[in-house]
TrEMBL record:
It comes from Oceanobacillus longus. The keyword Endoplasmic reticulum does not apply. InterPro entries: FAD/NAD-bd_sf, GMC_OxRdtase_N, GMC_OxRtase_C. Residues 438-553 form the Glucose-methanol-choline oxidoreductase C-terminal domain. This is GMC family oxidoreductase. PANTHER family: LONG-CHAIN-ALCOHOL OXIDASE (PTHR46056). Residues 179-330 form the Glucose-methanol-choline oxidoreductase N-terminal domain. Pfam families: GMC_oxred_C, GMC_oxred_N.
Amino acid sequence: MATKLPKTDAVIIGVGWAGGIISSELTKAGLKVVGIERGGDRKTEDYFMMHDELRYAQRHGMMQDLSKETVTFRNNEGMRALPMRRYGSFLLGDGVGGAGVHWNGQNFRFLPYDFEIRSKTIEKYGEGKIPKDMTIQDWGITYDEIEPYYDTYEKMAGISGEDNPLGGHRSNPFPTPPMKKSVNMKLFEEAAKKLGLNPYVQPSANLSEDYTNPDGISRVACQYCGFCERFGCEYGAKADPIVTVLPVAKETGNFELRAHSYVTRILHDGNGKATGVLYTDLNTGEEFEQPADIVVLTSYVFNNVRLLLLSELGKVYNPADGTGSIGKNYAYQIRKGKATGFFDDKKFNMFAGAGGLGILVDDYNGDNFDHTDLDFIHGGMIIHQQTGQRPIANNPVPSGTPSWGEEFKDASIKYTNATLTVSGEGASMAFKDHYLDLDPTYKDSFGDPLIRLTYDFKEQDRKLAKYLAERCEEILIEMGADHVDTMQELEPYDVAVYQSTHNTGGVIMGADPETSAVNNYSQMWDVENLFVVGASSFPQNAGYNPTGTVGALSYRAAEGIVEYLKNGGGRLVQGKKERQSV
């Protein structure tokens, strides 16, 4: 029998970026908030001895324990899904701060096109441009409507950057200047300009200078140590929930964190209202019921979908007829369209770097180029990054080099600091047969079904990746590379090969409850006091990293929750809402 606890105003499931932002905003508004996190608590001191590539980058020391809970995967419905037993394609965070602790800090705003992709594509190219099995849809919110929330998020995190010449308008400049340009970044910039492109320094959550945000949180500048991705930042220079929003929530006295606590169900009355959550204390095995006026689901994409399915909330997606929305429109990121250049007479210091250090062009992103004669839609950014090439994982040699022996060793030494990669980060479109559901066979340590992922690359992805790879090659040749290896063909999707942790969809946002799960405040259509926030709400993925958009949606959801309680409940109004940027 679960122990029933006193009721609170709001319970947050998952204390990462989304959960931390919403906890901060609700507690500042005077609401009592309980944050439930299945992993342990963290503080900056925990990162002081974290420059251990083997433990954290190779053995995934900060990630979820796959022996207790994992994902099952299949490429199509004709295959039997099998559990992912070791990390490969993506990394699942664990603990307070979630993936917001071990991310690189690469931070972007989506393009205006991304939010209205279906209507804008049809308007320009006709409905025939969209394949019949492609299920992309507009978000139910425009760039202009979400822009103020991007602004608020960037000021909180202290995002460093410069204007994207092909991006949406900005109501304010970046709060901190762009990061330093390395020699190789300048080489990319010069080459891109010679090709008639529009390069700009990557927006970064690694601070370019000391910064104090509007909440009074002060942080120091990045040291360019190269230990960002898969590591926590011991300086606090990389924005993460631990050093930004969670201290604000705790300072109010209205926030209670319950770490090592695993939510197994969202409780509800069956009449469109959530009543709280059921969770287990992982230290003692005790089960508790936490009642709340508001439930906010802010865990990772897979768990957001899984918890709704286990709790029997929302309409389950049916790929056979396209009805339902929970599990619908899973999308990923097309990261294989790239080229690597080898230089005989140039050397670069690639060990130094930062997670968000890079330079890119958006000339081939979104609909910034004409697709009339192309057999794919959208595109992706083309970027050269200097994230820090740690020695264990980096040993590039040109194609044709033997894989062992004296010649291999000589080439390894020669090109250790003479290799540059230019990558395309392509958008991932949603398709009817790409979805998430509960696995009928495999279960977690609590005896509940695991989430099952059905996904493979489509012809859309192959054409897009090939196109971006060719553009990457052109830039490297202009940069003076003596040998360039370019991706020739996108292989079938393999969950065992790392690509990115940019999983999206499954609880998608839209203007129509028949085709989406949440409205543009992240409020569930079917359960008015349940808000589901995160990349799970993306109807498809853009040609950028998702975190900046997750942050913006989190601020909008927090505003909606406060308004919902102030109004005594009800459905939040769709469409544009006037809001002054902070």
